[in-house]
């Protein structure tokens, strides 16, 4: 498995420990098995930047957002982008008629499937693995797998954007928006730009760099970044706020107006109203 | 300012740290708070607000030199020794 897959084992290790807490935010019975072989070692290596607490809070925020959005909107097509060792397909209750697509590297998807099969674990939603590189033409692969770009979609991009450059992150959001009819949804997390340059995060960031999985992108204006790439924010929270692990998060929530603060953003967004293409606008006027 | 008042103020900062780390009973004046993970990137903001409150000195987090708050001795020297 390649390096990004080791970070998938790391977040699985976080989910395993959270599952074992009496006040855990969720349960993931498969996480301990999926965290092997390196997850727990990396947990120790990346300790100290609050990332474990963040992954726990983020997992629950995204679980809740997924369930809420499917319930409220009637969307029945879900794409999990580079979701690694995440097993929402096996953990959550899914409305009848939903199809989930998991887009990730082939070796990772195969490994996850093999481990889950060994546990006799069955998905609770029809799940289509799409073996593709998000840096390549993954959308064509997704369509070939049965994804319908004319159908409203819920996209989940968890723990993904900070591994991309700003340009790649923007292009990914635009690709996703371009394959989404109006009233589609996106659930995503980002880090603040200040986190990437803050002196207190440098040892953590250096370890990620040394391991070949650097964090590259963050923004202090998540609303603006999403708007610029086709999405309008419906819900934005920082960890520790109500609905985002308010009793679990062990830190104070920094006020939004404080500058230069390392922070994380948990976001639910809807496709932005796009201006009509010029030829359509001409016809209508 | 007398020595005694300065000491009381640094104790407020030490108490804040100890309250967050129940396994600790003391913090050395020269102990590196960052390396020992007594203060991390997430508690940092609250920590800086605390130093502001205790010292009455306004701190710009964008320009703060981290070495000024790395140890209790440094905090005392840069923010409390007025």
Main sheet record of chain B: none
Mean pLDDT across the residues of chain B is: 88
CATH superfamily of chain A: Vaccinia Virus protein VP39
Q: How many structural units, i.e. domains of chain A?
A: 1
N-to-C span of chain A: 55 Å
Major protein interface: A-B, 19 and 15 residues
User: CATH homologous superfamily of chain B, by name?
Assistant: ACP-like
**Cα-atom Rg of chain A, whole angstroms?**
18 Å
Structural summary, described in words:
- The complex is a heterodimer of chains A (285) and B (82).
- By secondary structure, chain A is an alpha/beta fold.
- Chain A has one domain: Vaccinia Virus protein VP39 (Rossmann fold, 3-Layer(aba) Sandwich), CATH 3.40.50.150.
- In chain A, 41% of the residues lie in helices and 15% in strands.
- Chain A has a 7-stranded mixed β-sheet, sandwiched between helices.
- In chain A, helix 1 packs across helix 3 (39-45) and helix 1 (3-20) packs across helix 4 (51-73).
- In chain A, 42% of the residues are buried.
- The model of chain A has no long low-confidence stretch (mean pLDDT 93).
- In chain B, helix 1 packs antiparallel against helix 2 (44-55) and helix 1 crosses helix 3 (72-80).
- Chain B is 48% helix and 0% strand.
- Chain B has 82 residues and is mainly alpha-helical.
- The mean pLDDT of chain B is 88.
- Chain B contains 3 helices and no strands.
- Chain B has one domain: Non-ribosomal Peptide Synthetase Peptidyl Carrier Protein, Chain A (Orthogonal Bundle).
- The chains are: A alpha/beta (285), B mainly alpha (82).
- Chain B: It holds the Pfam family PP-binding.
- Chain B: This is Acyl carrier protein.
- Chain B: Residues 4-82 form the Carrier domain.
- Chain B: InterPro entries: ACP-like_sf, PP-bd_ACP.
- Chain A: Keywords: Methyltransferase, S-adenosyl-L-methionine, Transferase.
